[in-house]
């Protein structure tokens, strides 16, 4: 009995060893392998080395400022990485460290893959930062969020999900977490793009199994990482301007109701009559589609998904359009945020963007019409019993 | 030292100093201190404040008892609860020392003295575990520390039970009396049931600790498996408490024995409360589960990191788990005692 207990104790302590490297993105590697019909092990090996030398480890993360110029050098502050990474502790002055492990890692995972230990029971799944796609932002659909968007999201949290509000957490801690989130996203996106580049452009798919030739050039790495960082710096220039709001009154709400159930916006097609969520939809978000329908696999086919699940992917889960009549809107939830969500759609989801026209037309909506829609959506939340059109 | 052989039944009477009040009172005091200690320790984990003081056994270089109280009381909250946890732990340690000394001086039952010594060693071990967890910055040792605490609490409860007057009074045969008809006849299955309650209660604590001290590298499937086991075992435990209550009720109706029936009744309520608190803990950490989305307010529920009431719910779940283990232990030890007494009484009756 005693040896068994001792063994269990040793095993348990062994599990507590420092995390000396970020987990590789095996799901994306498998996606590439499946879509290109190639082997990716060698490319993964060399990309992992490049990424580790550039970005460090979970215990000692590094922002590779030496390869950047200008603003990019300070996009992520090294003191923020120090505060956010590594084990959890605090000092005598109350400064906190290990913030990501304290607040985020259980859901988002060590590398920000969104597949942390507690991810599986959450709906929606925690965000995978590695794809560099974010839902709740003030910028264009394809743009990165601004820093203010991320800070705002952390403060607000996301109602009805596992994402908490950090309103009670100090500004310094929220700022450090924001930097670490950007760091993880840049690191993860760089890993993905380098892997795709190595396979598509450098001939890693043809390499012999025992090849020790290192094919990735520094110049290529710097260019790929530089472009990702540039997209973060450009975010503030890609904000979506919100035109002046039309008067919010019963007329505007009535017009919005017609648009909601009309052919152009066709919100009813997904959100159901009166936003009651009764429409039948069978869609998935982009994170799940990447390793399923986009490479010709059926998301609901358990056998097809099994290799991806073993690689660390979460089971694809259908995305449900928001039930607007419950009055719970994710994102900032104010008029401007809803305007942006209607006009730009929501990145990573089936929620499409609209064409904004100057004149009323059959192909798009004017900004005034979008505001009418906004007012109607806002009115739904205030009349929970009024679900019928 | 009065370390004599176990006294014969004739030597023991109600007035006998061997049923030492001081030992029992110290045992009860330790129970009364350990539960708050578990609360504070739970808060430390809830706030991830275990590493708010980086050294051990000192506190920022100060002797534990000499750390400036103003800096402690007015400093960061994490430091306040971690240092407070250490101080309260030290108090429990002193009480355990007093308990062992009192048992050495006053207790005639040798095994009770050794039991008190074991409790003292356990509190030393627990303190060392907590200290090494700090020095090693180990979450796993924090989990072991968190699991050992309730076991220590249960041991204190058992010690309080065996030093109580009711323990002595429950065995007239020990005093040469043969009041057989007053004694509840406790079947072996009831004692086993008590043991099952203890085992299930402790299993739940260990499973819960795995979730609470989750390793960042654990796979989601592993975490989900533990969650499922934790939930299923909770309902199994609740069912067993109902069976236990039914068994103890028979003892009450036949023989008027309330020493098992009352805690058995309390246990049903405690496990129900624990299930509610467990749901609250999940909600406070991860939001409403999908199958409870129809619950009023679930769709708009917002989790608040470091929310005070959220942390109280989570910590109450931890503390109630320990209480369930303690009450189960009380039932098990008492049922074992009653069975022993009823058998002894039967033997006395047969002899006469």
From TrEMBL, chain A:
Q: What keywords sit in the KW lines?
A: Heme, Iron, Metal-binding, Signal
Q: Where is the signal peptide?
A: 1-17
| InterPro entries the record matches | Cyt_c-like_dom, Cyt_c-like_dom_sf
All copies of the Cytochrome c domain together span 80-185, 251-381
Q: Name one GO molecular function term.
A: heme binding
Domain of life (superkingdom): Bacteria
Q: Which Pfam families match?
A: Cytochrom_C
Metal-binding in keyword set = yes
Query: Is the keyword Heme assigned to this protein?
Result: yes
What protein does this entry describe? Cytochrome c
Name the source organism. Stieleria marina
From TrEMBL, chain B:
Q: Which Pfam families match?
A: COX15-CtaA
Domain of life, per the record? Bacteria
A GO cellular component annotation here is: membrane
The membrane topology noted for this protein in its Swiss-Prot or TrEMBL record is:
Multi-pass membrane protein
Q: Which UniProt keywords apply?
A: Cell membrane, Disulfide bond, Heme biosynthesis, Iron, Membrane, Metal-binding, Oxidoreductase, Transmembrane, Transmembrane helix
Which cell locations does it reside in?
Membrane
Chain segments annotated as transmembrane: 26-47, 87-105, 112-135, 141-162, 191-211, 223-246, 267-288, 308-333
Q: Which InterPro entries match?
A: COX15/CtaA_fam, COX15/CtaA_HemeA_synthase
Any one Gene Ontology molecular-function term assigned to this protein's record: oxidoreductase activity
Q: In which pathway does it act?
A: Porphyrin-containing compound metabolism
Signal sequence range: none
Q: Name one GO biological process term.
A: heme A biosynthetic process
> What name does UniProt use for this protein?
Heme A synthase
Lineage, highest ranks first? Bacteria, Pseudomonadati, Planctomycetota, Planctomycetia, Pirellulales
């Amino acid at each position: 009995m005693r040896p068994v207990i001792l063994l269990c104790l040793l095993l348990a302590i062994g599990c507590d060893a420092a995390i000396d490297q970020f987990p590789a993105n095996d799901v994306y590697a498998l996606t590439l392998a499946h879509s290109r019909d190639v082997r990716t092990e060698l490319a993964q090996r060399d990309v992992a080395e490049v990424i580790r030398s550039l970005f460090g480890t979970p215990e000692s993360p590094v922002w590779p400022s030496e390869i950047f110029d200008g603003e990019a050098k300070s996009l992520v502050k090294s003191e923020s990485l120090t505060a956010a990474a590594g084990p959890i502790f605090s000092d005598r002055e109350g400064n906190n460290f290990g913030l990501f492990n304290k607040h985020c890692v259980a859901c988002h995972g060590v590398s920000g893959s969104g597949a942390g230990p507690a991810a599986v029971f959450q709906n929606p799944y925690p965000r995978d930062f590695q794809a560099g796609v974010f839902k709740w932002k003030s910028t264009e659909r394809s743009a990165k969020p601004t820093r203010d968007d991320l800070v705002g999201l952390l403060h607000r949290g996301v109602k009805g999900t596992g994402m908490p509000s950090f309103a009670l957490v100090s500004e310094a801690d929220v700022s450090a977490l924001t930097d670490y989130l950007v760091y993880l996203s840049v690191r993860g996106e760089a890993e993905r793009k380098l892997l795709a580049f190595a396979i598509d452009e450098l001939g890693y798919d043809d390499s012999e199994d025992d090849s020790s030739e290192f094919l990735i050039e520094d110049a290529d790495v710097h260019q790929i990482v530089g472009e990702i960082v540039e997209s973060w710096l450009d975010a503030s220039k890609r904000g979506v301007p919100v035109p002046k709001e039309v008067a919010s009154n019963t007329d505007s709400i009535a017009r919005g109701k017609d648009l909601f159930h009309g052919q152009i916006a066709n919100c009813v097609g997904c959100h159901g009559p009166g936003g009651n969520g009764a429409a039948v939809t069978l869609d998935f978000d982009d994170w799940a589609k990447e390793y399923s329908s986009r490479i010709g696999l059926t998301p609901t086919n358990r056998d097809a998904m099994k290799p991806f699940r073993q690689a660390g992917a979460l089971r694809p889960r259908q995305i449900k359009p928001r039930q607007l009549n419950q009055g719970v809107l994710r994102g900032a939830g104010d008029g401007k945020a809803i305007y942006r969500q209607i006009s730009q759609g929501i990145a990573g989801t089936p929620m499409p963007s609209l064409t904004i026209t100057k004149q009323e037309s059959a192909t798009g909506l004017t900004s005034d019409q979008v505001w009418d829609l906004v007012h109607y959506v806002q009115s739904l939340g205030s009349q929970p019993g009024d679900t019928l059109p | 030292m009065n370390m004599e052989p176990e006294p014969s039944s004739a030597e023991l009477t109600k007035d006998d100093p061997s049923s030492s009040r001081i030992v029992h009172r110290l045992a009860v005091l330790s129970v009364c201190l350990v539960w708050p200690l578990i609360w504070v320790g739970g808060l430390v984990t809830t706030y991830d404040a275990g590493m708010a003081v980086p050294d051990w056994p000192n506190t920022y270089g100060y002797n534990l008892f000499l750390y400036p109280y103003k800096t402690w009381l007015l400093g960061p909250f994490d430091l306040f609860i971690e240092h407070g946890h250490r101080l309260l732990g030290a108090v429990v340690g002193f009480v355990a020392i007093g308990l062992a000394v009192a048992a050495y001086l006053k207790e005639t039952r040798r095994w009770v003295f050794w039991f008190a010594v074991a409790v003292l060693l356990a509190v030393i071990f627990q303190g060392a575990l907590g200290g090494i967890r700090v020095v090693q910055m180990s979450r796993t040792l924090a989990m072991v520390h968190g699991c050992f605490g309730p076991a220590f609490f249960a041991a204190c409860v058992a010690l309080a039970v065996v030093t109580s007057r009711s323990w002595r009074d429950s065995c007239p045969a020990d005093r040469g009396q043969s009041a057989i008809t007053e004694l509840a006849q406790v079947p072996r299955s009831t004692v086993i049931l008590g043991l099952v309650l203890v085992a299930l209660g402790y299993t739940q604590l260990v499973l819960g600790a795995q979730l609470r001290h989750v390793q960042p590298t654990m796979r989601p499937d592993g975490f989900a498996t533990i969650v499922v086991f934790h939930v299923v075992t909770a309902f199994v435990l609740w069912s067993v408490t109902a069976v236990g209550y039914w068994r103890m009720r028979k003892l009450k109706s036949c023989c008027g024995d309330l020493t098992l029936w009352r805690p058995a009744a309390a246990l049903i309520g405690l496990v129900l409360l624990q299930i509610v608190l467990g749901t609250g803990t999940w909600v406070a950490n991860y939001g409403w589960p999908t199958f409870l989305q129809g619950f009023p307010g679930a769709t708009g529920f917002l989790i608040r990191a470091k929310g005070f009431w959220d942390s109280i719910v989570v910590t109450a779940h931890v503390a109630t788990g320990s209480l369930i283990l303690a009450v189960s232990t009380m039932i098990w030890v008492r049922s074992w005692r009653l069975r022993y007494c009823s058998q002894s009484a039967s033997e006395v009756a047969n002899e006469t």
